[in-house]
Structure formats: structure tokens, C-alpha cells
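Supplementary Methods, section 5.1.

A reviewer requested that the exact input to the structure prediction be made available. We therefore reproduce it here, unchanged from the version used in the analyses.
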Amino acid sequence: MYEKTYPSKRFNITLDFLKKHIKTSETIFDLGVPNPFSKIMVDNGYTVINTHGEDIDNNQSALQTEKYDVFTGFEIFEHLLNPYTVLQNVKADKVLISIPLRLWFSSAYRSKTDMWDRHYHEFEDWQLDWLLEKAGFKIVDRVKFTHPVKKIGFRPLLRWFTPRYYLVYAERVKSDK
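The structure derived from this sequence is encoded cell-by-cell as follows.
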């Protein structure tokens, strides 16, 4: 288990949620390049495949060619121009997705130094729910949680009480065809 301090709180909640729904025998396709959380998944016995830096908005071929049982997208959908297209190309019947929630007291995130580190979408929970439903998935479980920051001020205080992250587990709806 990782320390329950900033910034590891979100990793602990995500890992507990993953363990609740996904067996270590299932191969995970984690959208995005290898990252601290994909390493945590591997350290906990999961087999993880990541993308290799391709522009996912324009190239979803890895979603179609890799062999995997579960699709994960942790804090990446907000960076995509069209997350619906990504979900249409997912082969797995199980998905785990987390997003930072839109905060009424904070503007959309945009890095001043990294052109790729921007939020094109600032989701509310219902928007991700609708996106998954439209792409053919049914949400089985969900959780919202806060993410306090170690700063002083009105907005940092609000982060202690306002949910910042939304994490969902969904399964593909089987068609009757």
C-alpha cells in the first residue's frame, strides 16, 4: 500500500477500486504511456500494456491490435479531443476510467509550458456516465473523492470538501443481436 498522503491518496483509492473489480489474471490496456500508476499496477501483480506516445486522438490502432481483457484510462480522457472515438475502439468488455471533475471554483487546467498537458474537457460526473452509456457500457460501480492540496487559501480549503475525482467501473452492454 502506498502512503495515504498527498499525492498518493488518489493512487490508493484507485488501486483499491481496481482490486475490487479486476483479477490479476486479466490483462490491462492502460491508455497512455507508462506512468507512476501503471507501475503500481505491475507491482501489484497486474499485466499492463501501455500506448507508446502516439496521438490517441488520431491513432487508436493499438486499441484494436493489442490483446487485453480490461481497458483503463486514469486521468487521460480530459486530455483527449474525442474520448467517444477511443471508447468505440475499445475491444474489452470491462473499463475503469477516472477523471478529474470540473470544479466550480477553478478554471480548466492548462499548462503554460507543455502543449499536451491541457484539459480539453472538464467533466461533470453525468457527462462521463453519458459518454460511457452512448459508447455501449453500463456503469457497475463508481466513487467520487476529494484531493486536498497543501496550500493555504479559500480554494485549497474547498478542495478538502469538494470531490475532485470520479472513478467508474463499467461493463459493455451485450446486444441481443
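Helices lie at 9-21, 36-43, 61-65, 83-88, 125-134, 154-158. These observations are discussed further in the main text.
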